[in-house]
UniProtKB/TrEMBL annotation:
The lineage of its organism: Bacteria, Pseudomonadati, Pseudomonadota, Alphaproteobacteria, Rhodospirillales. InterPro entries: ABC_AA/LPS_Transport, ABC_transporter-like_ATP-bd, ABC_transptr_urea_ATP-bd_UrtD, BCA_ABC_TP_C, P-loop_NTPase. This is Urea ABC transporter ATP-binding protein. GO terms for molecular function: ATP binding; ATP hydrolysis activity. Gene3D superfamilies: P-loop containing nucleotide triphosphate hydrolases.
Length: 247
């Protein structure tokens, strides 16, 4: 029998900062079309894990394989080209441009200078921008300046700017922080659309949102996996209860 192929396989991953092991012999496997949520107390190593995957931080030990390709030796832009997109907590949209222009600018144009210079607003780009705008609930705001969007709409726009690059794996750091309840629900809807074509790793503190989206939850503590499984399972795990209520 064939062993199962994971989209992302992390094995024995560690990183130390001045002798402190922020991530300590971590193993994590993510399947295709999965929404994996990483939770854990502050300082557990959640952000560092995403930093390691996207090449912002170099691992001291271990491997990160994505579609069979080793990522730990690649540079950040090479990891992006391999199909890994990362959204940070603060939106990095262009406030002076419209929604359309923000999405258009993120459309992959090939890597050559000539490709970038000869870029035209052709039908392919327009169709793709409209398709993404619909997914992120901004179809009626294509000509709106990004500056006047709500906080939630700005977060969606940034997700759209990643989606238009068609990453296979999307990593989101607290996507619903600061959102209203209705924006949070729509974000859950968006993620459930996204995973038909992509896989998603989300760091999240909002447990209602986690319940709405998580296929599987990984609880990190002191740079290690403390517990993993369905939301119900990790919530009733005595080790998890201890960590969350024990201090
Ligand atoms: P979380 O996202 O779960 O709150 P982090 O991954 O941000 O946790 O941090 C894990 C630990 O690693 C923390 O103790 C943090 O202070 C430390 N850390 C993270 N990045 C660095 C860095 N660049 N230099 C030194 N220490 C760091």
């Amino acid at each position: 029998e064939q062993p199962k192929e994971f989209l992302l396989s992390i094995e024995g991953l560690s990183v130390s900062f001045d002798g402190f092991k922020a991530v300590n012999d971590l193993s994590l496997y993510v399947e295709e079309n999965e929404i994996r949520v990483i939770i854990g107390p502050n300082g557990a190593g959640k952000t560092t894990v995403l930093d390691l995957i996207c090449g912002r931080t170099r691992a001291t030990e271990g491997s990160i394989r994505f579609r069979g390709k080793e990522l730990t030796k690649l540079r950040e832009h090479e990891i992006v080209h391999a199909g890994v997109g990362r959204k940070f907590q603060n939106p990095s949209i262009y406030e002076d441009l419209t929604v359309f222009e923000n999405l258009e600018l993120s459309f992959p144009r090939g890597r050559s200078v000539l490709g970038a210079l000869t870029f035209r607003r052709d039908a392919e780009v327009i169709n793709r921008v409209e398709e993404i705008a619909e997914m992120i609930f901004l179809k009626d705001h294509l000509e709106t300046d990004a500056a006047i969007l709500s906080h939630g709409q700005k977060q969606w726009l940034e997700i759209g700017m990643l989606l238009i690059q068609s990453p296979e794996l999307l990593m989101l750091d607290e996507p619903v922080a600061g959102m209203s309840v209705s924006e949070r629900l729509k974000t859950a809807e968006l993620l459930n659309t996204i995973i038909k074509k992509h896989s998603v790793i989300v760091i999240e503190h909002d447990m209602k949102f986690v319940e709405d989206i998580a296929h599987r939850v990984t609880v990190l503590h002191q740079g290690k996996v403390l517990s993993e499984g369905s939301m119900e399972r990790v919530q009733s795990d005595p080790k998890v209860i201890e960590v969350y209520l024990g201090h």
